[in-house]
Design a protein that fits this description.
This protein is α+β, with helices and mostly antiparallel strands. The chain has helices at 8-26, 91-105, and strands at residues 2-3, 32-35, 39-42, 45-55, 58-65, 109-110.
């Protein structure tokens, strides 16, 4: 577990910046943007979402990314890295890259 000693707002900025950077590595031609505070979009279609919650002195970070597929039966546009023609990384590769980039944006401390 990684504990992040940061305020919720500061944490959200760091996670968002790192996640957008990671996703751009896998789909460099896609126009990946952030819809503040927690959605990552490509031309209006949701590719990923972020949720932060403070628990005592820690900020718990939840990240969901549509890697290989995306739901077809939702009331808004959605997409996935596979649909964008990008490589489909393993979840572990995405989490590892995200942790590395978050450490570049902020200070992380292992539990």
């Amino acid at each position: 577990m990684i504990q992040w000693a940061a305020s919720r707002a500061h944490g959200s900025i760091g996670v968002c910046a790192a996640l957008v950077d990671v996703l751009r590595c896998y789909a460099p031609a896609a126009a990946i943007t952030l819809k503040w505070p927690n959605d990552v979009l490509v031309e209006g279609a949701k590719l990923a979402g972020i949720l932060l919650e403070r628990v005592d002195d820690a900020v718990v970070i939840g990240v969901g990314v549509n890697l290989a597929n995306h739901p077809e039966t939702v009331d808004r546009p959605v997409t996935s890295l596979a649909a964008l023609g990008g490589g489909v990384p393993s979840p572990l590769d995405v989490v590892s890259a995200l942790a590395r980039l978050m450490s570049a944006h902020t200070t992380l401390a292992p539990d």
